[in-house]
Write a structure and sequence with these properties.
The complex is a heterodimer of chains A (234) and B (346). Chain A is of the alpha/beta class and 234 residues long. In chain A, strands 3-4-2-5-1-6-7 form a 7-stranded mixed sheet, sandwiched between helices. With 346 residues, chain B is α+β, with helices and mostly antiparallel strands. In chain B, helix 4 crosses helix 5. The chains are: A alpha/beta (234), B alpha+beta (346). Chains A and B meet through helix 1, helix 2, helix 3, helix 4 and helix 5 of A and helix 1, strand 5, helix 10 and helix 11 of B. Strand 7 of chain A pairs parallel with strand 5 of chain B.
Chain lengths: 234, 346
Amino acid sequence: MATLIGQRAAPGQRPDARSLRGETSAVADEILRGLYTRSNLHWGEVIAVSSAVNGEGRTSVSLGLATTMSHDFPDRQLLVVETDVTRPVFAADVGLERAPGLSDCIAAGRVLAAAIRPTSLANVCLMPAGEVAERSERILGSPNLKLVVDELRTGFDLVLLDAPPLLSNSDGGPVAALSDGVILVVRAGSTRVEQAEQALARVGGPRLRGVVLNGAVSSVPGWLQRLTRSDGRP
Amino acid sequence: VSARLLETFFRHWLLILAPLVLLPLVVTILTLQAPAQFESTAGVWVERSTYVDVISDVSPYITPAQSQANRLAELLRSPAFVTDVATRSGLLGARSNDSLRRVFQDGIDIVPSGDHYIILRFRAFAPDDAARLLSATISAFNARTKADQGIQSRVAIALYQNRLAEAQDHLAKANTALSAYLAGNPALRGSTGYVTPVGALDSKFGELQHATQTAQADADRARTMLDRAQLDSAAAQVGQELGFQVTDPPQLPTGPSIQLRKVLIYPAAAFIGGLFGSLMLLLLLALGDQAVRRETDLPSRVPVTVVLPRFGPARSWRRTSSGAVRRAIGPTAITGGGRPAGGSPA
């Protein structure tokens, strides 16, 4: 996903939506377009983007999916919620202030308007995780989480939950259970087969909307792939 | 499986090819950097190693050169023989016994060429050593051969003397029996001494005559063999070395020898070893890789919705942290802002 965007932004400089659109690879856009069409998403749904372990590209896929959908549906409102309160990254990577965020909303028992941050894309908002919580299970296990999610569902056309990993974080299951569907991200070359299978088993068949094989690259040269391909495709 | 092996190979091609390239390279460098060796060559004409054919275990289908070459190769495995050679060459005190044995095991080539000709080559790190050791080897082998032949000739003389005595005894008995039979049957021989027609028809007389002739032939053969054994023994004693002649004496080598065996065989063996190592490494890497790499690695009941490739060269991917992606999403981060302008909650 890194090269979807291009070069790293200079410190203190945040590319606006126009430059973002120009740098985004058309190929990646098309792939992410395929993700939301094949995942059978509907407006008004809450979709969790999760993975087996950390570092598989959940946040990148969530943000990339939101960006592509915002281009394709400029009149729809999208929200990406960071739910991994133990390892928040929005604050550091996207440049948002950490609080107020999701954990503050849960503590208050309602959606705090200040927790929803607009972006350079007019129809995409972000909600950071909030202050780092030492006992995350108290926050994500709170019944207030469902209230917050339900309120967000009514306020946006599509809510993407950047969920904690299913295997390495005990919060992953409860967050996925609150959603209408789960998109599972599997990092090619990193996630082990058994980890992917365990994560798939935890999600369950009906809830699973799609699997994203992220960062797939073949080391075999192109000419050899064409030579060994049995179906004769170029 | 082949796709996975291919994938593994191209992903770790540097690591996998390392044994295949480095091992022959290192071996070739070591071979070329090894100290130069000098080779001394000699030619020896040999006879069969034994006189007594009846008691020899040497196959008649093996040439004398092959027989003697095998014998010398076996002798070189004997510490006593090696010590004898070292003593003759003057290197006994200069080298340890193990070192000497290795020198003889690796340094000498014994090549039969024809039925009676043996070519001997000796390699050493000093030209003088090569010539001296080869001369000493030939000298020790010659001495051992002469000693063996002397023993064998004495055994042969004794054997053929016994055979001759037995044959002569049989002949005497046959003559006595024939004479007694003739004396008892004067009609068998006429007044002129020739056998009469009556004698020609006498079976007993014919049998005695045949026994006498056979005993005579045995005695003659035993005498011939005895004469030959006595002649060989005498020849060996006077140093004529009939069965062992150094036709091409060892020469002092003037330059280092080109050792094709080392230059070609060792790197080739290292290449084969490296190839085996590379294949094992490839298999280990392929079997040890449990990561999901393609759609087919996931359970078949789970269809992959999209495959997001890694765009651009891998190095730039590694340089660019995941944070750059998120930063590039570019939120305006209006702190304290509410809903986005124009936002219309569903």
